[in-house]
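Follow-up to my post from last week.
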Amino acid sequence: MSEHTRTRTTEEETETDRDERAGCPECGGRLSADSEHGETVCRDCGLVVQEDEIDRGPEWRAFDSAEKDEKSRVGAPTTKMMHDEGLSTNIGWQDKDAYGNSLSSRQRQKMQRLRTWNERFRTRDSKERNLKQALGEIDRMASALGLPENVRETASVIYRRALDEDLLPGRSIEGVATASLYAAARQAGVPRSLDEVERVSRVDKMELTRTYRYIIRELNLEVKPADPESYVPRFASDLELSDEVERRARELIEAAREDGILSGKSPVGLAAASVYASALLCNEKVTQSEVSEVADISEVTIRNRYKELLEAGEVVTA
DNA sequence: ATGGTTTTTACTGCGTC
DNA sequence: GACGCGGTAAAAACCAT
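User reply:
Got it. Predicted complex:
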């Protein structure tokens, strides 16, 4: 994978089409992009400067008939949210032929049989069935937690990888699906706490944390500790607090971060405390118990945290 | 498994509406 | 008297080793 120093013979560089601004790091020669291979190549020494450039998406539009022919590499967009990425065949439910004419009853029966078999083949493979169920679960839980589409997609990808790497045996589909979703939400910066996720899942917390740790480790997923700030907007809106409160809550967290009080403390607790403290500063009334309610954190923790937060905030305010 | 840290549980006292 | 708040001690949960 990492052969950035690979060189190519001049003979191969036939489809170069446009010059790049920067020079070759090796010999200073001119570079040219080779969009056919997705590489940037030096014209003089043949050094491959950059490989695997991003394909910036399909050309959905064609401006003349020539482009129409060469750029029509576009099909329906695929999605990781369907177990077959939306690529398999579906036989329509309407008993019409390609011209819209109705079918004879004989042919209708035939079509019905075809549908049946098509469905069977489509979900035959156990992995496919597995995925189908898991993705359904992910979707259900994501809805219950109010998580956006992109998180579901990410969760689907994670699950798919777990499946490909044979991480499933010995673990429940439910558990892995839940863990995937939990991880996806965190990666997307819209975390849900373990308690919240557990509530909509069919697995208990023990299994969830165990499975979560497992797939994170096995798939080498980088999941940074949740940022307290990412919880703030949700809590604030759940409590119907103003944007001002939300803003100051963020400031408090920032100030605390400077002072290094954040490490080791639960992010949810910090977020809850900052919202409470901020509401106090803005003269908007919320009780500790209300905050603890929406944040799923004990009042004691809120008390402890918010004192610390205010102390750290003093420095900034004063 | 163990020890250190953080969070939770449970209880108590104080002031206010 | 109920409620919101603050404090404390002990238990439980969590994490790194």
